[in-house]
Design goal:
single chain
C-alpha cells in the first residue's frame, strides 16, 4: 500500500501514534477479510463487505495523513 511513501510510512509508524493505530487496524482488517474469503473464518458476504468498507475508509484516512506529512516535510 502506497509504495511511494514507504519511508514515510516507516517513520510515521514509530513517530505518530494515531497513524500507527490506523495502519495496524488496516492490516488487521486485511487479515480478517483474507481469512473470511478463503473460508478459514466463517462469514457471510455482508460481513465481508462491511469489513472491506471499513478498510477502505481507513486507507483513505491513512492517505490523508501521508499527504499532510509529505507536504510539511
Amino acid at each position: 500500500m502506497f509504495p511511494e511513501y514507504r519511508d514515510l510510512i516507516s517513520r510515521l509508524k514509530t513517530e505518530d501514534a494515531h497513524f500507527s493505530r490506523l495502519f495496524e487496524r488496516h492490516n488487521e482488517l486485511d487479515h480478517q477479510i483474507s481469512n473470511m474469503e478463503t473460508g478459514v473464518t466463517p462469514a457471510d458476504a455482508f460481513a465481508i463487505e462491511s469489513l472491506k468498507k471499513e478498510k477502505l475508509l481507513l486507507k483513505d484516512k491513512i492517505y490523508v495523513v501521508l499527504r499532510k506529512a509529505h507536504e510539511t516535510a
